[in-house]
Design brief:
single chain; 242 residues; 9-stranded mixed beta sheet; two-stranded antiparallel sheet
């Protein structure tokens, strides 16, 4: 561990859309490669890294209501889609020499490990990147909630959410040029202002366990490493100081 790292153990939350690049669906190999390089750089700095990746680039369970597919079934299909993204990222990281383990909340021993908390912690202690797949293993919970849950279970110092923009704004900055960017927010601010950072369950879980959330742009080169060092451009969400 170098002295520059402010956070020693982190969970990186990525949306499935972050892996699409300019494509409208699926995986863009150049984008996955670039993000893997970002993760490798942080890992080589001695930081213990885990990931949760969504599946919006492949599948969204909630979108199936219009297709007459039951919500629970749709959510399970979405969980399986996260495994595809996890395996893709694992393969890309290992091609770069980063030892990686995928743990799934839905057991599928032929392709990855089942989720076991103590084993996951041990993997990180041994310098392996751990990717948590299949959400929480339960329908009606998003991968945001899964990320907050795993971060708490792993005793992570912070959740780093890599998004399409460089922090939290009062409105979509791509649609509203007057949108205000926040440097710091409390969990309560996020809830009361209905800021679309993470879902309510994820924010509440992070607040109850005092795990800060740092929101930054995953598309800015070097941003992940900068944020882990407490530098760069990001919005931090944490408990207000009394």
């Amino acid at each position: 561990m170098t002295a520059s790292a402010k956070y020693k153990r982190v969970l990186l939350k990525l949306s499935g859309e972050a892996l699409m690049g300019d494509k409208g669906f699926g995986l863009d190999s150049e984008t996955v490669d670039r993000i893997a390089e970002e993760i490798k750089a942080v890992h080589e700095n001695g930081v213990q890294v885990s990931l949760v990746i969504g599946a919006g680039n492949i599948f969204r369970g909630v979108s199936l209501a219009e297709a007459n597919i039951e919500r629970t079934t749709g959510d399970y299909m979405g969980m399986l889609a996260t495994v595809l993204n996890a395996l893709a990222m694992q393969s890309m990281l290992e091609s770069k020499g980063v030892t990686t383990r995928v743990q799934s909340a839905i057991p599928m021993s032929a392709v990855c490990e089942p989720y076991v908390r103590r084993r996951a912690i041990r993997h990180m202690e041994k310098g392996r990147v751990v990717i948590f797949a299949a959400g929480t293993g339960n329908p009606f919970f998003t991968t945001d909630t899964a990320a907050a849950l795993r971060a708490v279970e792993m005793n992570c110092d912070a959740i780093l959410k890599g998004t399409q923009v460089d922090g939290v704004y009062s409105a979509d900055p791509k649609k509203d040029p007057n949108a205000e960017r926040y440097e710091e927010l409390s969990y309560q601010d996020v809830l009361t202002q209905n800021l679309q950072v993470m879902d309510t369950a994820a924010i509440a879980l992070s607040r109850e366990n005092d795990v800060p959330i740092l929101v930054f742009s995953i598309h800015t080169p070097g941003a992940f490493a900068d944020v882990v060092e407490g530098q760069g451009t990001y919005t931090i969400i944490k408990n207000t100081q009394t």
